[in-house]
Amino acid sequence: MSSSVTTTCRELTELLPAAQTACRLLFQECFKAGIKNIFITETYRSQERQNYLYAQGRTRPGQIVTWTLASNHKSRLAWDIAVGPPHSLYDVTTLTQVGAIARKLGIIWGGDWVGRVDRPHFETRANWKMPAGYKLENQVIVPNSCKTKVEVIVENKPKEEIKLTQTWNPGSPTMKTETENFIAQAVKDGIVQELHLKDLQNGAMTTDRLIGLYITIQQRRSNF
Predict the structure, then answer these.
(1) Fewest beta carbons within 10 Å, which of 87, 93, 205, 208?
(2) Residue 160 pLDDT exceeds 70
(3) CA nearest 84: which of 27, 28, 37?
(4) How far apart are alpha carbons 144 and 141 in whole angstroms?
(5) DSSP alpha helices (H): ranges in 45-193?
(6) CA–CA separation, 24 vs 137, rounded Å?
(7) Do the Cβ atoms of 154 and 137 come closer than 8 Å?
(8) At what angle do helices 173-188 and 194-201 cross, to 10 degrees?
(9) Predicted confidence (pLDDT) per residue in 25-35, tens digit
(10) How far, in Å, CA of 133 to CA of 112, rounded?
(11) Which residues does the UniProt record annotate as the domain Peptidase M15C (predicted)?
């Protein structure tokens, strides 16, 4: 049995550009509303995987998990979410709050469907456009596991940032080691995602982004 059939894809980049933007905007607005413990459970789904899931509870053991062979997941326009601790995985209250935000953004919510209610499911049309009055921040972190939380890093440069820019020297081994340790501890504490550490280690971290990340970590630590 191929791994693509049994493996769940949670990568946002596997969605079409319009759906990627819609999903990021949804998570951003949820963050602003105080909903930070939601995460992606599935994005793109091949027809073969859809067939496999459809067979469950019918020709294959298990409970029925889907009622269709023609899911929008295979069109790269849909994504499913779940809720992290301390709530239950599919907490109705949280999903309903996310659904209400989705409506304002012109995103289709499965919780509004009649007869086949699917609260964890969200999707867009291929021609979806961002509604007037909304702006997508440069850094919207969309988690794909319950181990991390939604993050929105607003790239406003406070005065302190200028001082940090002058002192940051990416060519200094000592400074790079100290910075890696600082971010690694933040990852361990669940404050930021591991991708930030990997980008720093791979040389993909810009100075502006590093400064914004540093400020975010300090702010989040003070709120813990």
Answers:
(1) 93
(2) no
(3) 37
(4) 10
(5) 47-55, 92-104, 159-167, 173-188
(6) 9
(7) yes
(8) 160
(9) 999 999 999 99
(10) 24
(11) 68-123
